[in-house]
């Protein structure tokens, strides 16, 4: 009986994990919210502007365009803030983020709320976090995007 209970617990955990992964692709839970787990590969275009291609993000797959300003800090870690706009086949999603950029290593991290959306993202809410590393010579970067996306009226 104990072995059967263990097997049932493992199966329940696997089912929960599988459903959670499917929801990360856009279905969300009953409240309309789901986790975000995406990857970005991009380029620093200079003057605070970046662009990236987003994959493994379900409904967020597409591209981003962003602009960042230095808002404080001191060498080598500066505080940054900016706006990131996702463009997907489902519409656009905008997040206003703030965080840090280390000019000695290229490491960055920024988090903030979803502030606007169009199409399927109209009325969407949630919080996104971007963390990654920029190659300081070429400006190329990779990032992980995580957080929560809650469906809006457009869904």
Characteristics of this structure?
alpha+beta; 58% strand; globular; disordered N terminus
Question: TL;DR?
Answer:
It contains 1 helix and 8 strands, in the order αββββββββ. With 155 residues, it is α+β, with helices and mostly antiparallel strands.
Task: Please provide a written account of the structure.
An eight-stranded antiparallel beta barrel has the order 1-2-3-4-5-6-7-8. The model is unreliable at 1-28 (pLDDT under 50). The chain is globular. It is 17% helix and 58% strand. It has 155 residues and is of the alpha+beta class. The chain is built from one helix and eight strands.
List the helices and strands and how they pair.
Layout: H1 2-27, E1 33-46, E2 49-55, E3 62-74, E4 77-88, E5 91-102, E6 107-117, E7 125-134, E8 140-150
Antiparallel strand pairs: 1-2, 1-8, 2-3, 3-4, 4-5, 5-6, 6-7, 7-8
Terminal CA distance: 45 Å
SSE sequence, one letter per element: HEEEEEEEE
Mean of residue pLDDT? 85
Rounded to the nearest angstrom, the radius of gyration is: 18 Å
């Amino acid at each position: 009986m104990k072995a059967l209970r263990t097997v049932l617990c493992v199966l329940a955990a696997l089912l929960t994990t599988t459903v959670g992964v499917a929801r990360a692709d856009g279905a969300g839970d009953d409240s309309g919210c789901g986790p975000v787990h995406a990857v970005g590969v991009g380029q620093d275009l200079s003057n605070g502007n970046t662009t990236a291609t987003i994959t493994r993000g379900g409904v967020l797959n597409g591209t981003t365009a962003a602009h960042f300003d230095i808002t404080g800090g001191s060498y080598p870690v500066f505080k940054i803030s900016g706006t990131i706009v996702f463009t997907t086949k489902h519409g656009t999603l905008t997040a206003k983020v703030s965080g840090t950029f280390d000019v000695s290593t290229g490491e960055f991290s920024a988090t903030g709320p979803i502030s606007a959306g169009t199409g399927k993202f109209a009325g969407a809410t949630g919080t996104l976090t971007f963390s990654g590393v920029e190659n300081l010579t070429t400006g190329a970067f990779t990032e992980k995007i995580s957080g929560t996306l809650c469906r809006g009226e457009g869904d």
